[in-house]
Design a protein that fits this description.
The chain is α/β, with parallel strands linked by helices. The strands form 2 sheets. Strands 1-7-6-5-2-3-4 form a 7-stranded parallel β-sheet, with helices on both faces. A 6-stranded mixed β-sheet has the order 8-9-10-11-13-12. It contains 13 helices and 13 strands. The chain has 2 domains: 2-212, inorganic pyrophosphatase (n-terminal core), CATH 3.90.1640.10; 217-341, Diaminopimelate Epimerase, Chain A, domain 1, CATH 3.10.310. It is globular. Bound molecules: guanosine-5'-monophosphate and manganese (II) ion (MN). Residues 29, 105, 288, 307-310, 313-317 line the site of guanosine-5'-monophosphate (5GP). Guanosine-5'-monophosphate (5GP) binds at residues 29, 105, 288, 307-310, 313-317.
Length: 345
């Protein structure tokens, strides 16, 4: 396994990708976000432009606000096209995993990734990669996988193959993973990459509006309901929680992506450093956690909700009922009272 030490990995990757006309399959994590889709389209456009055949596969459906890209690269949804993806995998020369650190994050595709016997490449910015790929580029200081893709592409000599579509997609990844340049931006890196991407003439106003001004009326009303009726704030623990049942989702005609961003709202309350969102799914409860400062939600999620992620943005799940999950969270707050009080923002 080659890891990102020195230039060795970039030289090997250059060799691996340098022979044209290979079949590349790019995969993202489950419930792909702007960074996952942006990285995949960005890298996919560059590799196709260079001369490879590229297919993107995402484990499950993704929201409408990520379906406006100029790129015409095919994005297959594994859940819907299992057989097609299975036969594509047989012909694939290189598998590239983007924006996730362990095969489990690819959900129903996990086994397919592990079984794949030809070269596997990882490009990701989450901590503690499990090492399931032969070439592993994992850089936690990067704001986004998209920013990292740009650097990798430069290092392996493919910068000249960046085009408008790639620049648009990579910008989207950086913009979404930094919450529109509000966090993970303490290094010059993201701005410097964005500045380069602007040279392809991308329309950043248009991209911003396509992501953030593209909601349905129902989604806005669901948000209103959550903030107005469902948010519970615990000032003594500097924490807040929102939870949503299947019934509520149905009432507001839930579409994939509609609850994206909800978990961030409580953090704009003065002195709140920890926010949780629990959403009732068919057979589990999906948990999202966000924090400010040095309160590590990835560790919290790993220890109590079989999850992980970044220090300030993590996810997980619970097999308890929605009510029990919420109760478990509230009980846990007591355990973390000291740490929450001491959190430096
Ligand atoms: P979100 O709350 O938006 O689903 O996820 C926030 C962050 O946590 C993302 O970086 C995502 O990749 C990561 N994440 C979400 N769910 C899980 C999970 O179940 N396990 C792990 N390890 N990471 C997760
Ligand atoms: Mn990311």
């Amino acid at each position: 396994v080659l890891k990102n030490t020195g230039n060795e990995i970039f030289n090997s990757l250059k060799e691996l990708l340098g022979q044209k006309h290979q079949k590349m399959l790019l995969v993202t994590h489950e419930n792909p976000d702007g960074d996952a889709i942006g990285s995949a389209i960005g890298l996919g456009e560059i590799l196709r432009n260079f001369g490879h055949e590229v297919i993107i596969v995402v484990p499950n459906d993704y929201p409408a606000f990520l379906q406006w890209f100029s790129s015409d690269l095919e994005i297959l949804i594994y859940e819907r096209k299992k057989n097609q993806v299975k036969s594509l995998l047989k012909e694939t020369d290189v598998l590239i995993c983007l924006d996730f650190n362990e095969p489990k994050r690819a959900a129903k595709m996990e086994k397919k990734l592990l079984e794949f016997s030809k070269p596997k490449v990882l490009i990701d910015h989450h901590p503690n990669p499990s090492g399931f790929c032969d070439y592993s580029i994992s850089e936690t200081e990067f704001s986004s996988t998209a920013e990292l893709v740009f650097e990798v592409v430069k290092k392996i000599g493919l910068k000249d193959y960046i085009n408008y579509n790639a620049a648009e997609a990579l910008f989207t990844g950086i913009m979404t993973d930094t919450g529109s340049f509000s966090h993970n931006i303490s290094r010059p890196g993201p701005f410097s990459v964005v500045s380069s991407l602007m040279e392809w003439g991308i329309d950043t106003d248009k991209i911003h509006a396509a992501i953030y001004h593209n909601f349905s009326e129902n989604r806005m009303k669901l948000l209103g309901h959550c903030l107005g009726q469902k948010m519970e704030v615990f000032p003594e623990f500097r924490s807040a929680i929102i939870w949503i049942s299947q019934k509520e989702l149905e009432d507001y005609d839930f579409q994939p992506g509609d609850t994206e961003g909800f978990v961030n709202y409580p953090l704009s309350i003065n002195n709140i450093v920890f926010s949780a969102l629990f959403i009732e799914k068919k057979d589990h409860v999906k948990a999202s956690f966000r924090s400010k400062g040095n309160f590590p939600v990835n560790e919290f999620s790993r220890d109590h909700f079989s999850g992980g992620g970044h220090r300030n943005a993590a996810g997980g799940e619970s097999k308890l009922s929605l009510e029990e999950s919420v109760e478990k969270f509230k009980q846990l707050l007591k355990q973390y009272e000291h740490q929450l009080k001491e959190t430096i923002i």
